[in-house]
Design a protein that fits this description.
The chain is an alpha/beta fold and about 280 residues long. Helices cover about 50% and strands about 10% of the residues. It is built from 13 helices and 6 strands. The protein has helices at about 5-25, 30-35, 40-45, 55-65, 70-85, 100-105, 125-135, 140-155, 155-160, 175, 185-195, 250-265, 270-285, and strands at about 110-115, 165-170, 200-205, 220-225, 235, 245. A 6-stranded mixed β-sheet has the order 3-2-1-4-5-6, with helices on both faces. A hairpin with a 6-residue loop joins strand 5 (about 235) and strand 6. Helix 4 (about 55-65) packs antiparallel against helix 5 and helix 7 packs across helix 8. It is elongated, with a radius of gyration of 21 Å. InterPro entries: Cro/C1-type_HTH, DUF5753, Lambda_DNA-bd_dom_sf. It comes from Streptomyces pimonensis. This is Helix-turn-helix domain-containing protein.
Length: about 280
């Protein structure tokens, strides 16, 4: 699944380097935008990696920052070229959370809190189909089918024989009781969760109802971490019309502490498996 050139990660690294050059120069994004006769929002989008960066953009920015080492300029321009390549997910058309997929594809580890449903990487096809259809009732069958296929292909990151994604999931107990699709679909889904939780790189805990108010009460989020030290951790919060990506160390640290509280409040791994197994048997009746 992971490729040698991940366009999302390339854009992100390039944006970080361009921000560093601007800060070394002591310029604000507004000043740079004024020099280049572009909007400040464009400079911000280039720096946060949410927008494709052309080689011309890099050349112009390096000119403003007075980068004299041509090797640096050429390296940044090559990164810009690589960042415009398409990831595997682009073959499926316009995917709303394509930026996230790019990050997930390159991540070394992922921590997820999911309050409502079984998280996407652990879903069976039948469960995913029911979730996508229920969550997008006005979308065409073709669009929903594409979203399901993308979700299933993403799961290659946790089943890969070499360097699989390390996954830690905290599921609210509500996600186990919400009947998605049918009772049979739920039985198969919970059995699938139990099977995957046996893998050494996957940990699943359940946050029980009895905990009451807890650190994740405000909703779902994920924390992505990367092997390359140059790539800072990212907190991802999924929205209906837009998603939120938090990269500032203070924000990441706050969500990390919240996640530690969630793990401490949840059932341990064995007790979580026992609960999932019991509910799976209940669905079989």
């Amino acid at each position: 699944m992971a490729s040698n050139v991940n366009p999302t990660v390339r854009r992100r690294r390039l944006g970080q380097e361009l921000r560093r050059l601007r800060e070394v120069k002591g310029m604000t994004a507004e000043e740079v935008a004024e020099r280049l006769l572009v909007s400040q929002s464009k400079i911000s989008r280039l720096e946060n990696g949410r927008r494709s960066i052309s080689q011309r953009d890099v050349r112009d920015l390096c000119g403003v920052y007075e980068v004299e080492d041509q090797r640096i300029v050429e390296s940044l321009m090559q990164m810009a070229k690589d960042s415009r390549q398409q990831g595997w997910w682009h073959a499926f058309g316009d995917i709303p959370y394509s930026v996230y997929i790019g990050l997930e594809t390159d991540a070394e580890s992922l921590r997820v809190y999911e309050p409502q449903i079984i998280t996407g990487l652990l879903q069976t096809r039948a469960y995913a189909e029911a979730i996508v259809q229920g969550g997008s009732p006005e979308s065409s069958e073709q669009d929903n089918d594409k979203r399901v296929e993308v979700r299933l292909r993403r799961q290659g990151r946790i089943t890969a024989e070499k360097d699989p994604l390390r996954l830690w999931v905290v599921l609210d107990e509500a996600s186990l009781h919400r009947v998605v699709g049918s009772r049979q679909v739920m039985r198969e889904q919970l059995e699938h969760v139990m099977e995957l939780s046996q893998l050494p790189h996957i940990t699943v805990q359940v946050l029980p109802f009895e905990v009451g108010a807890h650190a994740g009460i405000n909703g779902q989020y994920s924390i992505l971490e990367f092997a390359d030290a140059a790539d800072s951790s990212v907190v991802y919060i999924e929205g209906v019309t837009s998603d939120l990506y938090l990269e500032k160390p203070h924000d990441v640290q706050k969500y990390t502490v919240m996640y530690e509280h969630l793990r401490a409040q949840s059932l341990n791994v064995e007790a979580s498996r026992q609960l999932v197994e019991r509910l799976a048997k209940d669905y079989a009746r």
